[in-house]
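TL;DR need structure tokens for one chain.
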Amino acid sequence: MPEELMHSKSQKQLVLTGAARFNARPKTGLAFLEENKLIYADLSPNVSKAHSLATFLKNCTRLDKRLLGDFISKPDNIEILKAFIGLFDFKNVSEHQPYLTLSLLNEFDGFRNPSQRRCGKCLKLSGSPAKHSR
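>> reply
TL;DR here they are.
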């Protein structure tokens, strides 16, 4: 039991360090997380690198949400963005809901993205049937 507790504390410290490094410089943080097998350790024919990373990014509460939004919405990270959006459940969101955009953004709990253009990209990638004008 003490060994399990020590391992758990060690893993938590690695996650905190990785999140702090990601918040300072995303590429440095990702390298640290990969080196310590906190991301990409679950790769399989059913789990891609993008999905593995997106799962970590969604579940890690210590990441700066604005930085996270900027990172995953960069053109080079489109597969990560798609995987990240795929982790949310939109089953209960009706296309006839009056505040669809607000509802979808609420689904992105903790996901902050300062650009409306990027939010539009997120909505498009979510598969929302709603029509957006602007």
